[in-house]
Amino acid sequence: MQKKKTILDIQKMRQAGEKITVLTAYDYPFASMMDGEGIDMILVGDSVGTVVAGYDDTLPVTMDEMLYHCRAVRRGVRQALLVVDMPFLSYQIDLTEARRNAGRLVKEGGAEAVKLEGGSNVADTIRAIVDMDVPVMGHVGLTPQSVHRMGGYKVQGKGREQADRLLADAQAVEQAGAFSVVLEGIPAGLAREITAAVSIPTIGIGAGVDCDGQVLVIHDILGLCEKYSPKFVKKFADVSGTIRQGIRDYIDEVKSEQFPGSEHSFK
Fold it and tell me: What residues does 136 pair with on adjacent strands?
């Protein structure tokens, strides 16, 4: 059995040039499977709103919902570092509210770190949370909680002016005390530039191969999210067809009275 990973281990992986693997999880079974296979970090993402709850975006997700899913995932994690997203409005109001909600995710949810979106605009918030000894992962580039400002899920940092702003955002996140930063939906060249400019691990999602690690949504890599398929997603398995076939077989056997058979019945 591998030893429990901490934020220090994640930072050492960058220093050693070892790629960091991250997946999202929202429940005990998936968390237990990915933890058992040796994933480095598990993220309880507010993407639960789109891939589990069926919302059009992540904005409706609440603190209570994130706490519920974090607790479920916590029970399945023995080795991976457990990070949880701070949902929309849980950290944007004021620093007191942000600190309280970050603390709840650790105290009530069992998280070992929290993730919040934004760059220079949330540097003070990151610093306030880190000052209470809660590790923070940053998130710059395409930030889903800013979908309305961005006019949709569009690649960020294409022009030099915007690229320079994202570089400054990543550096602000680092200076505020974040232990790592997610780079989402940005050109690969810019991700390479940011990774070279900061000393904390960069975790890419739609940001090319030069980041220190990669994160994807578990439902996306297994073909379980049929609402959309971003360019940066690779399906490593397609279990949707297997699940649908199992459901069809169940319906057919109940209708035809093949199930339950004698072996499934009590005497």
Answer: 114
What's the rounded Cα separation, in Å, for the pair 233 and 225?
A: 11
pLDDT digits (tens, 9 = 90+) for 61-92: 999 999 999 999 999 999 999 999 999 999 99
C-alpha 243/C-alpha 246 separation (Å) is 5
**Catalytic annotation on 161?**
no
As a whole number, the mean pLDDT across the chain is: 96
What does residue 53 show for φ and ψ, rounded to 5 degrees? Answer: -85, -15
Q: Of 112, 117, 174, 184, which is the active-site residue?
A: 184
> Against a cut of 0.90, is the pTM above it?
yes
Complete domains list, the chain, with CATH: 7-236 (3.20.20.60), 239-267 (no CATH)
Write down the H helix ranges in 17-159.
Answer: 28-36, 48-51, 63-74, 95-107, 123-130, 147-150
223 vs 201: CA distance, rounded Å = 28
**CA triplet 53, 186, 39: central angle to 5 degrees?**
55
List the beta strands (DSSP E) in the chain.
Answer: 20-24, 41-44, 81-85, 113-115, 136-141, 180-184, 202-205, 213-216
Cα gap 214→150, rounded to integer Å: 23
- Residue 120 DSSP one-character state: G
Classify residue 150 as exposed, middle or buried by CB count within 10 Å of its CB (0-12, 13-18, 19+): middle
Structure tokens at 177: 């005390």
3-state secondary structure at position 13:
helix
